C-alpha cells in the first residue's frame, strides 16, 4: 500500500499506509492525523482539508480543477503555490511517498 507522509504542526512527521482509491483527507481522518478538519466530508465545499504539498511532489499530482482552485482562495492559512485540498487528491500506487504539510490553522 502507498505510504503518505504528513508533517504536523509541531514539525513531526506521521507516515501512514493509505488505501488506493481513498483521498489524502480520508487517509488522514482514518489515522487520526490532527489538523485536517474536513468539515464537509470531502464534497469540496469547506476548504478545511487544506494541505501544503511538498514542492517536489507537485508534478505527480493532477492540477486542481476550477472548483478546488476557487476554494483554495478561502483557506484559513495563507494559500501558497503548493496548496491543495486533500480531499481532492486520490491515493494511487504512483503517489507512494507523497508528503503533505498540515497548515497552522483550518478555521
Ligand atoms: S473536506 Fe471539505 S473541501 Fe475537502
UniProtKB/TrEMBL annotation:
Gene3D superfamilies: 3.10.20.30. The keyword Membrane does not apply. Keywords: 2Fe-2S, Iron, Iron-sulfur, Metal-binding. One of its GO terms (molecular function) is metal ion binding. SUPFAM superfamilies: 2Fe-2S ferredoxin-like. GO terms for cellular component: cytosol. GO terms for biological process: P450-containing electron transport chain. Residues 2-106 form the 2Fe-2S ferredoxin-type domain. The keyword Iron applies. Its cofactor is [2Fe-2S] cluster. Belongs to the adrenodoxin/putidaredoxin family. This is Ferredoxin. It comes from Hylemonella gracilis ATCC 19624. The lineage of its organism: Bacteria, Pseudomonadati, Pseudomonadota, Betaproteobacteria, Burkholderiales.
